[in-house]
Every structure is written in structure tokens, then in C-alpha cells.
Amino acid sequence: MHISGPTAGRRVCAAVIAALVTYSTVLTGENLAAAGRIPTASVPAPKLDWRPCVQGSPFDCATAKVPLDYDNPGRRTIELAVVKRKATDPGRRIGTLLFNPGGPGGPGTVQMPQNYEFFPREVRERFDIVSWDPRGIGSSTAVNCFATTGEAAAWEAGKPAGVPVGAQQRAAVIAAYQDLSRRCERRDPELLRHVSTADTARDLEGLRQAVGDAQLTYLGISYGTILGATYANMFPGRVRAMVLDSNIDPQAWTNHASDAEPRLTTFLRMGLDRAAAAVLDRFLTLCGSTDTAGCAFSAGSPKATRDRFDQLMRRLRAQPVGEWTYGRTIADVVSSLYILHPGWTDLAGRLRDLWQGRVPKPSQPPPAPPVPHPNPYVGDEQASAVLCGDSPNPRDPAVYPAMEEAAARRGGDAGRYWTWATVPCISWPAVAADRYRGPWNTPTAHPILVVGTKYDPATPYVDSQAMARELADARLLTHEGYGHTELINPSSCVKTYEARYLVDGTLPPAGTTCRQDKPPFPVRKPVGGVAAGGGWMAGIVH
Predict the structure, then answer these.
(1) Span 128-157, mean pLDDT?
(2) Alpha-carbon gap, residue 165 to 538, rounded angstroms
(3) For the segment 511-533, what is each residue's pLDDT rounded down to a tens digit?
(4) Distance in angstroms (rounded) separating the CA atoms of residues 254 and 188
């Protein structure tokens, strides 16, 4: 899911871990006999000339040169910006963990350093961790449809923010993205056709070779899960260990590999309308279950807090607070549900301000990581190039209003948001030259660990269940918690299982459920009674 650089929430507490189940194959060596879908074109591994990213940085940087078109590798080459943090216990180093931070459109050279401390401690000790800006993104050879940053900013300012309201705003948003499509087609139409998930899977295979590992050890979150699943089915014999955290249903992504015009957008096929609505309901319920010291938007009870939110949305439709329109606020609400700490607390504060008629203070950006380009250009066209070229979406703008109303019946305000999240695809000028559309059940050299969070606003738990079913050999680990990806909404229980699996191949027992470490808001203490039990969501459940 397209997310804008998550960082944040902290603190990992201890959790009780039950017996572990080890699968029989040892995670060493290669099993090339299973590799039935490795592309036929022979391409040398890219060379990585590692140097400190900036003076004094603990991260090293390099640039990889890869073919634009793997079917014609002798023609144009493009560059991939790559970043590495060396294993902190080099004497016990196992190899390299390659990491994709999702999106599509997430720049790994920024998001891996920002989120490095969220990787399990033993993984940081025993693996070099390498990430990269995928082709088309950030500091790699990027899709950029504007001549200057000022031109890009003017385009962004010229369209309604967030969810369009009414026929006039809908027409303005559609026209803005038609203009963007024309700009993109003029600047580099060849690049637009070669930023697919399959292209990036081939880049990932090249990076595996470049770091010298016989097989791939990989962690992908969000969009990184469909990338991982694509790699696993294109290069099944190369899979050493693969963690897919917060998954996209492959059948939803590909529209069941159908050539027919899709009825729904990618995100509605995934069920994001219902999922985001369920998480928003939990946010309001938990907020209303504490006082304003614990959640600034609390109205004293879950029902009163939900009613207050609905009333605020009606008010904003009629009268924005400064630049905070209904459309902008809904977009902010949904994206703020991704990160539990401090995202939910900060969201509650902004909603309180809007309720009281005040313009919320701007959010503080996360600290810049020590890399050469800590804030690369990542305009809408970069995520759009991957999503719209790879995953089918309706191209008739006339169907979107009815689709929005149907999604609103299922998911309220969140349904409206997710309907319009794929509006760039209506007029996008390119279809990927190389799309992987299945099969998804090719036997891999080793099993895959799938992690799904129960209340995830951007990759529903049912999609993680679907991913585990689609893959030939996968184990589902359930994260009983909130937010988008376990990596940045941590459960020490999940991280312990992930580390054990990545180190020696030990899978959690089938049906394992882990609890999140920290509740979204402080639990209101009972008055006149004694609280019993083992604490909020502590430990492990089978």
C-alpha cells in the first residue's frame, strides 16, 4: 500500500514464547532444481562499491547498474541507489537480509535507516541489512514528470486535497491526473513500461548475487509482500528465508489475472474499505474508553466519541477549518492509523483541535537519516507508475461515483478515501511490459513466513490469510494488534519468532497468535474494584 515513509513508535517489551517447530530442511546451499521460472536472459550481477553514505554514518551506500529491460539487457541501463548496515556481530554473521519497505514507492535508502532499530536485535547482529530505492523511485533512476520541484508543487497545490467532494472536485482531480499522465508520457515513456513488480524482482535477484549470498534472505512489508511473492514464484529455488509482513492478496493485485475490465479498484478488491473502517471504529472505541488525558478526542464513552467524529465530518463538509477540508481530514485520518505510536495519539490531538475550531499544528517530520539524499523526490507519479502499470484498475471515470457510494456503504468515510486512491490509474499512459500474474503456488526451496496484523487499515488480515493459502509452503503468524505492519507496530513475540526463523529456519507452531506490546491508549483504571488478569494483550495465545 502506498504509504509515505512510516517511522516511529517505540519500545519492545518481553513476551513469553512457547515451543517452536523446526522444518526439516536446513537453510544452507541451493536447490536450483526447483527454480522453474528463472528468466532465460543471462545478466551479470551488478557491482556494489560500498562507501560510507556520509562522513561518520554507520550506513554504507552504493549504486547498482541494471538493465532497464531484462529481455534486452544490452540496451539502456538504469541505476539503483542501495544502502547497507553491516551486521553488528560480524563474527557470527550469517549473510545479508534484503529489505523492501513497501509502497509502492517507498525509498529503502531512507526508510531502512529510519526504521533500523525496529529490526529484531538478533537479526541486526547476524545479518547485514540491505535495502534500495526500487527502479522508478527516489534516488534510483526515478519517474519524475516535472522539470522542477516548483512545477511539481504547483501541480500538487492545484488539485483538491484528499477525497474529492462533489462533481466539481471529482472533475478537478480527474483532470489533474490526466495532466500528470500527459507530462509523464512526454518525459520518459520507456521507463514507465519497465517499473513492474517483476522487473523489481529481477533487480532483487541481481542484488542477491551482488552481495554474494547463495540464496535470498528477505523481509518485505506491505507492497514488499507482493514483491516477495513474485520473487518466490519466479526464483523459487533461491528462497532461503522470506518474511512477508502485512500482505497483499495476489489475486486482488492481479484481478485474478483477468484481461477483462475490472469492476473494482485494486484497493477495493483487497477490502481496504472494510478494513480501514474497522480500524477507525477501534480507534474511536478505544479513545472513548479512556479520558482526555489518555486520548485527546475522547467524548467520555465509545458511542459519544464515534458520534463526535461523525458530527465533525459533517461540519467539515460544510465549513473547513482553514485548509482542513473534509477530504484532507479523511486522508489524514486513514494514513494516521498506520502507526500506533505516536500516530494514534497525534491523530487524536488533531481531531480535538478541529473539533474546537483550531487549525492543527503541522506534524514534525522524522529525523533525517545519515544518507546522501534523506528527502528524495517521491511524487505521486512514482507510486502510480508501479501500481497502475502492474495492477488493473477501472479506466472509466464515470464508474467512480457509484463505486464510491458502494464503498461508503461498506466502509463509511474510509471507503470514500480508498475508492479515490487509485484515481491516477484512470488515465495512466502505460501498462508494464513485464507483469507477473501467477501462478503463486510454485514450490520454494524453503517455507515462507507470513505475518498478518488483525487491525490493519492498509493490508487487511484477510489478505495475509489469502497470501498464506496462495503460496505453496507458507506459515501464517497472526499479530493481534493495530496498525500497518508489525515491523513498526511491534510485538516482541512476533520479532522473536521472526528472528528464529531468519537465523535457522525455525517456524512458529501452526495457528500461533502474538500480542502487541503496548496498547494504543492508556486503559482507564477501574473505580471501586480490583483489576485482574495478565495485563493488556500480554504474551502469546495459541
Answers:
(1) 97
(2) 43
(3) 999 999 999 998 776 554 443 33
(4) 25
Place of cell 533525517: 368
pLDDT confidence tier of residue 365, bands split at 50, 70 and 90: confident
From residue 226, give the alpha-carbon distance in Å to each of 8, 230, 238, 417, 478: 24, 6, 17, 22, 18
**Residue 255 has which C-alpha cell?**
484481478
Nearest to 204 by CA among 347, 310, 98, 63: 98
Residue type, 298: S
Tell me: the pLDDT tens digits for 149-186? 999 999 999 999 999 999 999 999 999 999 999 999 99
% residues pLDDT > 70 (the chain) = 89
CA distance 209 to 392: 32
411 Cβ contact list (under 8 Å, min separation 6): 272, 273, 274, 275, 276, 277, 418
How many Å apart are CA 43 and CA 406, to the nearest integer?
A: 47
For the whole model, what pTM was predicted? Answer: 0.91
> Do 413 and 448 touch, CB atoms closer than 8 A?
no
Helix (H) or strand (E) holding 477: strand 474-482
Q: Which residues pair with 81 in a beta bridge?
A: 63
Cell of 17: 514464547
CB neighbours (10 Å) of residue 330?
Answer: 23
Q: Which of 535, 163, 526, 536 has its CA nearest to residue 340?
A: 536
Confidence of residue 289 (pLDDT cuts 50, 70, 90): very high
- In the numeric block, which cell numbers belong to residue 301? 464513552
| CA–CA separation, 344 and 520 (whole Å) | 7
pLDDT at position 408 is 98
Task: State how far the Cα of 346 lies from the Cα of 433, in Å rounded to an integer.
Answer: 42
CA angle, residues 83, 243, 94, in degrees to nearest 5: 60
